[in-house]
Design a protein that fits this description.
Belongs to the SecE/SEC61-gamma family. By secondary structure, the protein is mainly alpha-helical. The chain has 2 helices and no strands. The chain has helices at residues 2-17, 23-60.
């Protein structure tokens, strides 16, 4: 039981060392994540259309 208590004591000590982001910083990161998701979504949709078009052209040959 002492090992478990020591483990959680160490976890609490380490969590106190963590620098948590402030609200403004969190919003900044959230916006970047959202923009990256939108960009990657558009990229994969465009890639899908291009590949489908090439496949359709090859099927007609």
């Amino acid at each position: 039981m002492g090992k478990i208590k020591g483990f959680f004591g160490n976890v609490i000590k380490e969590m106190k060392k963590v620098r948590w982001p402030k609200g403004k910083e969190t919003m900044h990161y959230a916006i970047w994540v959202f923009l990256c998701i939108v960009f990657l979504s558009l990229f994969f949709v465009a890639s899908d259309f291009i590949i489908a078009g090439i496949r359709e052209l090859l099927e007609r040959l």
